Predict the 3D structure of the following.
Amino acid sequence: MGWIWMVALSGLIYKSLDYGGGVDIWNVSKADKIRFTHLFHNIEIVARIGMFFTKVSIVLLYRRLFITPNSHRSSISWAIWFIFWWNLLYALALVLTVSTECVGKPAQKIEKGECVNQFAVLICASVINVVSDLMILIVPIVAIWGLQMARNQKIRVSVVFAVGSLGVIASVGRLGYQAREAKRPNQTIIIMNVSMLAYVLPEPMKQTRLNFDI
């Protein structure tokens, strides 16, 4: 499911190029700016749903690998379910926020797509996403070191799961970039860069983790 939503996301990002995506905002017509803003809202929704399914796939993999019939009440089991609900509630909250942000707003704001503080939404989403990625990275490594395995085996398997740190690095990079750039005027450039850092780069890294089997 994650790959399906990622393909849809790639299509939307490609479509945004028709409305000034990747072009300096002062070279984009007013009509295209409005279309670009509305399209970015769709990108946010599709990206969040896709990231949710990708992370759920990883969490369910952890459950299959580390949870036995006798360990349903272990700390690792609780941590896995906490990550699942964290990501589900996060995805629902962001999708509902973006979908309903213009309800009851003046027509002028709706036309421009400026109904909420986009800076606050993007920063909050980035912080929550970084925390989520860190939890997904840490849980399997902790679980591995609690198994009855030789130390060298634990190290090798931990390194495999540590591939996910690349996704965390991308998430942190997105947060730092947004905190610095999100309020600057050249949004048609900045939003495209954020889309690459937030959605296009981390997703293959997370999907790659699913191909490893202990």
